[in-house]
Amino acid sequence: MxxxxxxxxxxxxxxxxxxxxxxxxxxxxxxxxxxxxSGMHRTQFFDGGEERYLSTEWATINPGLLVxxxxxxxxxxxxxxxxQPTDPFFPxxxxxxxxxxxxxxxxxxIDSINDLAACPRRTVIKKRIVLISCVSQKLSRxxxxxxxxxxxxxKFNLKYAEKLKPDNIFVLSAKHGxxxxxxxxxPYEQTLNKMSVSEIKQWAxxxxxxxxxxxxxxxxxxxxxxxxxxxxxxxxxxxxxxxPLEGLRIGEQLQKLKGLVS
Length: 262
Prior knowledge:
Helix content is 28%, strand content 25%. The chain is an alpha/beta fold. It folds into two domains: 2-118, no CATH class; 127-261.
């Protein structure tokens, strides 16, 4: 058997806890799953017909996904006490509307559902994105975002961001939201520092929608080189993040950045 995906704090169980999407080859079903499948879920499995849950047809039609042929898939609680059968397309179902709670992990071979207690919660990170907040010091003419912001802090943030070799670097712009470094824009005067809480929340919602267009939030690590107001209402929606300059004043940030890029 294999633990393929994790549903952190899964609400399908009597007690909220992590759930794992388990792949069980048909040859192991009788020994490793059926003795533990009970109650309504056992009835569901047999009344629905084992063929319904067998993955072969769906895996053949949809190659390249996480579903293997001749297997059954179950959501199993971390403590191994609750097991629910699922269709093989469960993580790909339209019921999630693009927001499936299941996340990829390093696939783990397990001999028993009791082994799930030791499975790490660490999810697979497929991307890294650095987010740098905009600054008030700008050129007086139209320019690419990477050139428009001219403060010493922004320049060092950008230099450090590039040293990390992420998949992408964006500016968190008070006017434009998520801004590509190569995007040409006019100078502007907007700043979150002059916005109300409700305005900042609206801005953050806009940024989150923009982020969803460029990556899968659950599979991306975000490095925030941004002030508190620029990250406060984004962080609760981000599962993997770093804030390397958190708690430092401007001078302390510059000092740390100089050491990081030297």
